[in-house]
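Example 3.
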Amino acid sequence: TMLGVVTTDAVVDSDVWRKMVQVSVSRSFNQITVDGDTSTNDTVIALASGLSGAARISNLSSPEAAQLQSCLDAVMQGLAKSIAWDGEGATCLIEVSVVGANNEAEAAKIARSVASSSLVKAAVYGRDPNWGRIACAAGYAGVPFNLNELRISLGDILLMDGGQPLPFDRVAASSYLRKAGEVHGTVEIQISIGNGPGWGQAWGCDLSYDYVKINAEYTT
Amino acid sequence: MSSVATDAATYIPAAPILLPEGPWQEVTGGVTAAKGFKAAGIYGGLRAQGQKPDLALVTCDVHAISAGAFTTNVVAAAPVVYCKKALEISKTARAVLINAGQANAATGDAGYQDVIDCASSLAEILHLKPEEILIESTGVIGHRIKKRELLDSLPKLVDSLSPTVDGADSAAVAITTTDLVRKTVAIEAKVGETYVRLGGMAKGSGMIHPNMA
């Protein structure tokens, strides 16, 4: 289960605030995954006291609304990433970035599909730069794209381009994954699927033996 | 059974918060960083093991504009159903009460009545309307909350409210379950011509694949 409480002293109308919160949730908490199980209790409550003395935000299209939305995105993404980082049994955070989609929603869908893949997660734990599993998870996300435009990088290491696997330094790529695991750091997976303006991210973690151990012992 | 959390760091360390880059500055304070908010976290005897805080409260000095996003799981926990109704009734809220230990999910009518009882008791202590109290629960699914322990702890929880970093940190610890770190963050940024603050806390480690609306 994930729970969240967000507070602000910004001055904002109710309908604007409620829309902002849903947008930020979609860009943050709804883009994390640890084990693919959606809880019965997931909740985010966001409260705005209005005590900052700032001008009231009553129009979602105003520059001030855009500024507040960015701030809300940042806070929720910071918290969301810390949940994925702290995933049960995890040794590292996985950040999947997708560019070139038709829109933000499609990019986000592909990113979460990759971050959710048990096989991708297990490969990261096994320090296996398995571009095939990444490509597979992107492909079944439900978003059509041209395979010939698929490009996949792991950190700075390009694994696939134009839909073709590339020769790469497997030892260096495996080392990148191992080092991230040793310091509980971040593994970055970058995917490009075309030339569209859509960009999105998702966050997960690797899948270790400890995940099974923890949940075999935590009774329901 | 209840005790006050005096040093949240003694229970679990702070999470690394990976804030995106932008025109904001990270500040201390978590949920209490913004003006008007207080928080507390105490041990109320709800956890099955240990004495880590398990009861958190966040309050606002004024009627805060409220919003929520909730699981779309059809088997939604009683607090989720309650909060959705509360947000339909009122555009503002004054407090969020959170317990760890029992999720109060799949607990039927009895579990829903537990939520009503908790909200009503806290509303009475804070001199608010029940719908101004929002409730979140986390823990073991299928178990009703330990209501007697929770209700008995409310006076001490309210007395512990603080606008400080310690208040925010103790609340952030109290909402954790299998988490290894507490998650709290706050930023300050200029919106229009005025600096505003946003802060937050979260919990989560397993059963994580949110789809909230």
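The longest strand of chain B covers residues 55-70. The helical segments of chain B are 78-89, 108-126, 147-159, 165-174.
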